[in-house]
Amino acid sequence: MEIPQAVERIIDTLETAGFEAYAVGGCVRDTLLGRTPEDWDITTSARPEQVKALFRRTIDTGIQHGTVTVLENRQGYEVTTYRIDGEYEDGRHPKSVEFTANLTEDLKRRDFTINAMAYSHKTGIVDEFGGMEDLKRGIIRCVGRAEDRFTEDALRILRAIRFSAQLGFDIEEETMAAVRQIAPNLVHVSKERIQVELTKLLKSPHPQRMSLVFETGIAAYVSDHFAEAGDPGMEGSGGSSRPRNFLTPEFSPEKAVRWAAFLRRLDGGKTEQILKELKLDNDTISRAKLLVSWWNRPLPPDKYEVRKAMSAMDAQMFDSLLEFRCASGTDTPEETETLKALAEEIRRDGDCISLKTLAVTGRDLIAAGEKPGPQIGERLARMLDEVLKNPEHNTKEYLLRF
Ligand code: ATP
Ligand code: MG
């Protein structure tokens, strides 16, 4: 197995000092699958103070949980002491953690068999729970009794579904039964953590697996209006006039686009409410909201209409919107081409589609004798609309007379 030089160096340094050390978890899983790991985690028998003493640059990331970040070439690597999690108190966090000198104990606390393997050049793969076999067969299976593992930490329920979507794996039967049974414990998981998992799921190659969130009864615990978005797997069952399910792997993997695709049957207001409750960032919320409110509006192949749409959003957003409308069947590919060509012309000609490039400003209106107040904004909006109709009218002379 190939591991980055920096990881090799860290493991080597720890081993030379007499400790055990391994790459562990997601990075081992991803490397075995031929995927590029997002980050490399190292597990070691050394205590945090001992780790800190061995490396020049370290950060105390979670000392009480045994985690020290080692910096190598400005990259951070989390080095965590072998650990046994104590009693879980709130369905999410262990009351305490205990360090151990035994690798197997550390692997036992991990969520799924495919995430519970360790590797070092010295030892090779350490696989105590059949992770290799499950990786080969494409199966998500809890380490130990699924019901207990989900009861300890309900976030694992969502992780199971998210990994199934990312890897295209099936959830093993007993693990799946426990997902359904323990789903109500998701009330213990913070909205933000839920959102991170769902965003990963939506951005994955199998976003349709959002269906599992509905089938297993999890949807009710996600957010207030979440269930109203509807199970994406149930779509298109009746009548071919309905837009086809376009949460396909080829579709743009952008976060706002994927959320909008999933929430599109709701209105902009509900979309905003759900995404706010799930603590998504404001930029994503406003982009998703725009897509949800524009994806199935009439958009005739007319320059004024296209300028109006373009004036409501930035250029990148408008391109996403056209892609979205085409994928959802709102516009045919021919209609999309026509709209694209019109947008292209509008951009090439530099038509004014924003107050920023309107030839008149609020200051100009005041200089011309208008009183400061809300009517200034209204006047500017009417001027912009005039210019969207007739771009050649974007001159100070014309608009002040207008
Ligand atoms: P990715 O980084 O792609 O999200 P990952 O498996 O690396 O996936 P991390 O959150 O980075 O996930 O966690 C690293 C490892 O820590 C996991 O592979 C797993 O062994 C363990 N782990 C993480 N979260 C949990 C959890 N909630 N319960 C049990 N073990 C966990
Ligand atoms: Mg990881």
What summary fits the major beta sheet?
A: 7 strands, mixed
Compressed to H and E, one letter per element, the order equals: HEHEHEEEEEHEEHEHHEHHHHHHHHHHHH
* Count of strand segments: 11
Strand content: 5-15%
At the third CATH level, what is the topology name of the domain at 1-137?
Beta Polymerase, domain 2
Give the neighbour order of strands across the main sheet. Answer: 3-4-5-2-1-8-9
Radius of gyration: 27 Å
Give the uncertain stretches in residue-range form. Answer: 236-243
Mean pLDDT: 94
Structural class comes to alpha+beta
CATH architecture of the domain at 1-137: 2-Layer Sandwich
Which descriptor suits the 3D outline? Answer: elongated
Any idea what the CATH superfamily of the domain at 1-137 is called? Beta Polymerase, domain 2
Distinct small molecules bound, one entry per kind: adenosine-5'-triphosphate, magnesium ion
- Please identify the top-level CATH class of the domain at 1-137: Alpha Beta
Number of helices: 19
- How many angstroms separate the termini? 72 Å
| Helicity level | 40-55%
